[in-house]
Design brief:
The chain is mainly alpha-helical. It has six helices and no strands. The longest helix has 22 residues, at 26-47.
């Protein structure tokens, strides 16, 4: 079952959007990526079952992979550490309500698609 790509502010009074400066270089990239992922959403829907436990949303996995490339992070494990530490939380649309996936989860998902 496909997880939802939603952002919530359950445990924070300040949204992730307010935490990152307006002229941050990732903002235009994020807008482009969001547009493309929205167009791909129907294709993702076809790939996932309608029943079962929700998965990590494919949009979040793809955003994480893009951040890994943009920031030249060597591995998924290091990337998850960086995301957890917060350098790229806004681009991944994560906050305290939606913790970062474990590194073993993302590696298994990427390897399973090959």
């Amino acid at each position: 079952m496909r997880g939802t790509d939603q952002q919530s502010h359950v445990f924070s009074y300040i949204s992730p959007e307010q935490r990152v400066r307006k002229d941050h270089p990732l903002r235009p990239i994020r807008a482009m990526v969001d547009k493309v992922l929205k167009e791909l959403s129907p294709e993702f829907d076809k790939m996932y079952s309608k029943v079962g436990r929700p998965s990590i949303p494919p949009e979040q996995l793809l955003r994480a992979l893009l951040l890994q490339m943009l920031y030249s992070v060597r591995s998924e494990r290091l990337l998850m550490e960086e995301l957890t530490d917060g350098i790229a939380r806004v681009s991944r649309r994560a906050n305290e309500a939606h913790p970062c996936p474990r590194a073993c989860s993302t590696t298994k998902r990427f390897c399973a698609r090959d």
